[in-house]
Amino acid sequence: MTNFSSANSAHLAAKFRPPSVDQVRVGGFFGPRIETIATTTAHTLLDRCIAAGMLDQVDPDRPNPGLRIPFQNGNDTVSTQMFWDSDFGKSIEAAAYGLLHKPDAALEARIDEIVDAYGRLQDENGYLNSWYQRIEPGKRWTNLRDCHELYNAGHLMEGAVAYYHATGKRRFLDIMARYADHIASIFGPGDGQKRGYCGHPEIELALVKLGRATGERRYLDLARFFVDERGQRPNGQHYYDREARERGRDPSDYHFATYEYSQSHIPVRDQRHVVGHAVRAAYLYSGMADVSTEFGDGSLKPALETIWGHLTDKNLYVTGGFGPSAHNEGLTFDYDLPNETAYAETCAAVALVFWASRMLGLGPDRAYADVMERALYNGALVGLSLDGTQFFYDNPLESRGKHHRWTWHRCPCCPPNIARLVASIGTYLYGEAQDEIAVHLYCDSVAELKTAGVAVRIRQETAYPVEGSVRLTLEPEHAAEFTLSLRLPGWSPQVTIRVNGEVLDPAGVEEKGYAKLTRLWQAGDHIELEFAMPVQRLYANAKVGVDQGRVALQRGPLVYCLEGVDNGEDLNALVLQPQSGFRCEVVDGIGGLPALVTTGWREKSESDHLYTLSAPQRVPTEIRAVPYHVWDNRDDGEMLVWIRAEADQ
Ligand code: FUB
Ligand code: ZN
């Protein structure tokens, strides 16, 4: 067993850290979703991972499955994958959060079996990767650019930390700490060490989690090494060029043509644009933000803040998804936000939640929390069906009726990613600092936090996001002075704050979109927040050609869409009237959220001719919108986010 100093030891000085998942008990809107993950999705993920052959690949005592090439036998699900360890890692992580919500001995036993297989697979020296140990032995650390070796390690580390927090069992954590120590012996600035880093960022943020869970600074140092080294040219040579030559390959023979694909084209501190593969990008920026927080390293901030602006001002879908192109699963050019062909991978929106939450490590700032909430409730959550068994990979904002969730995929990255995010949502609600607690998201919940040396229980009572009222009750173990920072969502045009019944002027206490309340807090103190939650019409910048003449509907954090099941066919024949109001309506099968109903027009052509000299006639009709993330949970049909709208005069 590895010896660790005490967890959260003082030398890991950071500003705001998220609470661990076990500190926040979540009910309300996310409660039933977590329950579904705990009781259904967690088992489904393990079932499907194992059915795909992952345990055969990992377990050294099972027959070696060997290299199975996708499509060779006409079935693209029959393939071994070099990133399978990551899918197992994420599935274990999701299941671990499920265990925190609801103990399940059978689920725990299944995880133990997988952990045991990894334990038996692990090399004497600590190395652990089922692909390079069983499928392609002899090729370790030869192709960091393409082969996910450190990415896999990162996801297994995250799974190990989650499982440790959920069960207190050390085995998986010890296995992964040993592997991290081995990685630290291979990679670094020392003589004979490799100055490489993964083509798919992930290990950086995972090492920070491992460092926080174990209290070991060396894991943070390794995370910082990988961040610092990315895109450098030691001795005038990019690491990926060098390793390609060492493999006997021409570095210019690269499918994605540019190292922008993996955000390793230039050193990270020099980067100013969001580029390349979307998930890689947001994972990298998450790691950079973590390193910046943990080391108090302000030199990463200009890059992080400018890249953030470039994403959110020019490249983000209204759903919080990003990366329009299937070719590179990522970015193309500014304002390129096609709707029907949007790739907007579920993992990218999940990763944006990770990144935004880590930007909050530097201090409460609504610019990040608002985007975190947008990505969470829309572009990410859409990836998981209400029954917890079906998953979206790509997320168009318009469909002619043929786009549906699938059961499994030969690249099953999204299902465990959205499941682990939702099941761990409690950690995204808060930030804890030395003398401040930040409330970033609202959801009915009870949190056991700590600040100013005092344990503080915070109870949130709310029907958010159905309604905009939230009541928070504080129970510090004894009276203590600290700051409570409450996010005032940017979408709300009117906010009321009452502390112990007394109304406060939000403008008098607001800083970067948070109400900062500093006082001697006593048990029973309560705060009531009222966020006006009108239905809002959002317009896209004129440079987004495809959205002109159209609006997206939003109420609170939820972006809405039209579905064929409510509105019939030809959703593009529907037009919203200017000024017409909306009423909320209960509709079955959309997770208890309100549908929005208004009066609009349906356009009808006079004849069946393709072109005529007269415009289609407009007939009044009812238009019903439902939250985007619940679409495709009922009957098949069209879907549309950007709705044609007659402009206000
Ligand atoms: O490569 C691993 C994962 O699979 C990526 O994060 C996703 O974009 C998908 O390509
Ligand atoms: Zn994915």
Automatic annotation (TrEMBL):
Domain Non-reducing end beta-L-arabinofuranosidase-like GH127 middle span(s) in chain numbering: 437-533
InterPro entries hit by this protein: 6-hairpin_glycosidase_sf, Beta-AFase-like, Beta-AFase-like_GH127_C, Beta-AFase-like_GH127_cat, Beta-AFase-like_GH127_middle
Gene Ontology biological process: carbohydrate metabolic process
One Pfam family in the UniProt entry: Glyco_hydro127C
Non-reducing end beta-L-arabinofuranosidase-like GH127 catalytic domain sequence ranges: 23-426
Domain of life (superkingdom): Bacteria
Domain Non-reducing end beta-L-arabinofuranosidase-like GH127 C-terminal: from-to ranges: 535-644
Matches recorded under PANTHER family: DUF1680 DOMAIN PROTEIN (AFU_ORTHOLOGUE AFUA_1G08910)
Name the UniProt record assigns to this protein: Glycoside hydrolase family 127 protein
Source species of the chain: Rhizobium oryziradicis
